[in-house]
Amino acid sequence: MVPPCFFSFLLVQGQYEVENLGSESIKGMQEFALRGGWPFVAPDGYLNYREHIGSHHRRCWIGIDRKRAAIQRLMFRWYARGTISVHGVALRLNALHERRVAAGKSGCLRKSGKPWQMQQVWKHLRNPFYAGIIVVPTLGLRVTGTHRPIVSQALFDRVQAVMHLHSQGVYDRNHYLLQGRVVMQQEDGHVVVLGCTTVRAGQHQYYYYRIGKRRCHIAVDRIDDAVVAHVQQQLASLGTDVPRAVARRMRRALSVARSREQATMQVLAQQRQRLVRVVATGHFTDDEIAAELQLINVDMGRAEQEYQRLSALFTNQEALIVEWQWIARHMQQWATLTDLEQRELMHLIVQQVEVDAQGVIVAITWTTMWEQLMLPER
Q1: What CATH number does domain 66-166 carry, 2.30.30.30, 2.40.128.630, 3.90.1750.20, 3.30.70.1560?
Q2: Cβ(358)–Cβ(364) under 8 Å?
Q3: pTM for the full predicted model
Q4: Is the model's pLDDT at 302 over the cut of 50?
């Protein structure tokens, strides 16, 4: 007869083996994650790969799913502009899916085949895995992964900054074309940003400023229509072949800007050499020379940073040309765009609109690249 304690021993031994197996599994996953691997199911945009080496060994890694990765990049780039909400990104992805399916192309819904919702977009934008960083809160890990990032660290940081900025306030139910970009200079010299309001059940929209406690309203259409007409007039000046004109002017603008910064750096270098020669004459004190040299070094540093930025733009000019051709093409189709698309497009072109108390436009400050595009040909 088997004694009862024998069954208790088997039960304890089995429980120990199960716990030991669980701890060894967690230990293995932790070691794999510390080496930059991902021991879980790959997120959307990636695929899990497995290769058997021999009979008892296998190699696992994460690879990019190109079609799904393109959706992730699009999501990050849209939101990084700061002109669209997380919910707006979801709506725009669903609208893009419908247009692609209607054109006979593959769609861009979620991996499960369901439409995008705000919660899923938010999770994707907050996931550092897409920037090449592995974070496992349950294991207390944050390491650089061995997988290829879908977006750059700079783009990911930009998205987090925009999300933090959006979290400071509430989203507006109504979209204003130039919200946050219409300003007015007051009598005391201070520049104030005009607020936005919708009255009478959403039928009328206004920009407003305050005189004391009283609100002064300016009709939104009065300013918006004038700015849009000005942009359309500028596009008309490009001629009939707008895409080719945009490509030609973009290349010229980047080349001219880079040459200008290079000339500035040469002038500063000559000033530094001249100062060194002056030092030899002994006409200035050491403090005066040090102060002058510091100013030149600061200007030189700024010029070098701008030159490096322009060189990067010059290297990626073909991608910029495609983006600005897209902007010009959509401006020509202005009437067919949604309110949200029009607002996003205008924020890429207009930096600031200054008006007077009567709502008459005093000056328009364009974005740097748009201003360069609209310069007359030489």
Answers
A1: 3.90.1750.20
A2: no
A3: 0.45
A4: yes
